[in-house]
Design goal:
single chain, mainly beta, Immunoglobulin-like, eight-stranded antiparallel beta sheet, six-stranded mixed beta sheet, 2% helix
Length: 535
């Protein structure tokens, strides 16, 4: 057959088939006239309806494609661009496993464009070569041209994604990934965010200033992520809207110790009432802050030898009551300590008297202390009771005729609200009577003033009788001596601490304060004055 064709062509050429370029075509060709076109590199045939046409089809070429194949719908419409496409051509996708998948349909648009619809392609075998085959079985191909567009995958687990604090700026981000690195759009399809909180559809950032709430409130919502072709299944999230808690410590002024101006002994001042709230719901508004002063100790120059009660401290609706005074042994009817933090009892004329028990552990935010101890009478001596503290009752004084100690002050309580542990609201020590004991040392964690007796002993300085500054501790009791007063109760303190994401306080000049350092918190320690702060 091959030899026959060669002979036929040669014979035809000898018979005078014309040849040349485009301008060399016969001027008045008849239907069926052949022509060798060297310029177009093809054998042409003339017909009255189509003119000069290539007798043998040319090889198609594929230059590019446009369109997407969706994993979600398992289909894709792809436009294929190239050259020499003819009617009747068809498109094929060839996976990395070598398997060829013919298009479900191929539409011939022009010699340079066809449209193919594919189904059944798996992302496991991408990228796919795209091939176009003409009816002559000549074909063109473009390698690694088509990828299966995959559904975005969620990166953020479902469930709770954040706890937002009321009335301040909050932010959290949800995210999904896209294998094609297409931009994603996030859409809430069910449920709702808290009022004031919005979802950025481009970035997945959920942010804003949420509403006021009196308790933790959960908001549940579902979100989809779309790359414009595929959309993820809805994912359910929730945000907890929480009250703005501030940790609050309010300590009232401590009571002053009793002063013995004659026979008998005296009691230590009671601690200032103490109120602590680990979670106090604070939100924008105004709050009255008042720091209670410590009560002064009884003195030689005073007509009343018992101590004076401390005054109340407060933050908003939280009120701590002032510490009770220590009783004086020579004042009949005043042997018991005062109310409040419960001052220590006094003794006189060999009579043991109990410390005041009018205030014990409080309820809610009411300040509290413990009752002072009972002055003991063993062998006729006299010893005052220690004032009650926030952590324990004051101790009993002990006297057996040869030794004499006043009662120890009640324990304070430790808090780390400022970032450093400190003790607050210890009771003052009761005064001793006999000359061989000069003072009573407070309990290890107590910081109330010492009880004291000076006659014939090395004297201690007056400040050792006082409660430690701004702790609300009671003053120590003292028997008559060259020191002309008993211990003063310490001034109280109001401390507030809350996360530093919350706005700063606005504080009037009538309040004295400092700002201890605590990581992640704003801390304000008010040490004197009264005024209204605002958030």
């Amino acid at each position: 057959m091959e030899g026959w064709i060669m002979a036929d062509i040669r014979t035809s050429a000898l018979g005078g088939i014309p040849f040349g370029g485009n301008t060399g075509r016969p001027t008045n060709p008849q239907t069926g006239q052949p022509f060798f076109n060297g310029e177009a590199a093809r054998l042409e045939l003339y017909t009255a309806s189509t003119g000069w046409q290539n007798i043998v089809q040319e090889t198609p070429g594929v230059s590019s494609i446009n369109g997407n194949y969706s994993e979600q719908t398992d289909s894709g419409v792809i436009t294929i661009y190239g050259t020499n496409f003819v009617s009747g051509c068809y498109a094929t996708a060839i996976g990395s496993n070598g398997v060829q998948v013919d298009a479900g349909s191929t539409v011939f648009n022009s010699i340079v464009q066809v449209t193919a619809t594919f189904t059944g392609l798996s992302a496991a075998y991408e990228p796919y070569d795209i091939k176009v085959t003409n009816p002559s079985n000549l074909f063109g191909i473009i390698p690694d041209a088509l990828y299966v567009n995959q559904t975005p995958l969620w990166q953020t687990p479902s469930g709770n994604i954040a706890t937002f604090t009321e009335l301040i700026q909050n932010s959290v981000t949800i995210s999904a990934s896209d294998s094609e690195n297409l931009p994603l759009t996030y859409t809430i399809v069910s449920g709702a965010l808290p009022s004031g909180i919005t979802l950025n559809s481009s970035t997945g950032v959920i942010s804003g200033i949420g509403p006021s709430t009196s308790s933790n409130t959960t908001y549940t919502f579902s979100v989809t992520a779309s790359d414009g072709i595929n959309t993820s299944a809805p994912r359910s999230f929730n945000i907890i809207m929480s009250p703005a808690y501030a940790e609050i410590l309010v300590v009232a002024g401590g009571g002053g110790g009793g002063y013995h101006g004659g026979t008998g002994s005296n009691g230590g001042g009671g601690a200032g009432g103490l109120a602590y709230a680990a979670q106090y719901d604070i939100f924008p508004g105004s709050y009255l802050v008042s720091v209670g002063a410590g009560g002064s100790g009884g003195s030689l120059s005073s007509s009343v030898k018992r101590g004076n009660s401390g005054t109340d401290s407060r933050f908003g609706s939280i009120i701590a009551n002032g510490g009770g005074y220590g009783g004086a042994g020579n004042e009949l009817g005043s042997y018991n300590g005062g109310a409040g933090g419960s001052g220590g009892g006094a003794t006189a004329d060999s009579t043991a008297l109990a410390g005041s028990a009018t205030q014990t552990s409080g309820t809610g935010y009411i300040g509290y202390g413990f009752a002072g101890g009972t002055g003991s009478n063993l062998g006729g001596g006299h010893a005052g009771a220690g004032g009650g503290g926030a952590g324990a009752a004051g101790g009993n004084g002990v006297s057996n005729g040869s030794t004499d100690t006043g009662g120890t002050g009640g324990l304070g309580k430790a808090y780390s609200i400022t970032g450093t542990t400190a003790h607050y609201a210890a009771g003052g020590g009761g005064g001793s009577y006999l000359s061989n004991v000069s003072y009573v040392t407070p309990r290890a964690s107590g910081i109330g003033g010492r009880g004291y007796y000076a006659s014939g002993e090395t004297k201690i300085s007056a400040p050792e009788l006082d409660g430690i500054a701004n702790t609300g501790s009671g003053g120590g009791g003292i028997r008559y001596s060259s020191i002309d007063r008993a211990g003063n109760g310490a001034d109280g303190v109001v401390i507030i601490a809350y996360p530093n994401t919350y706005p700063a306080l606005t504080i009037p000049g009538t309040l004295t304060y400092d700002t201890p350092t605590r990581t992640g918190y704003r801390v304000y320690r008010f040490t004197a004055g009264s005024g209204t702060v605002s958030v």
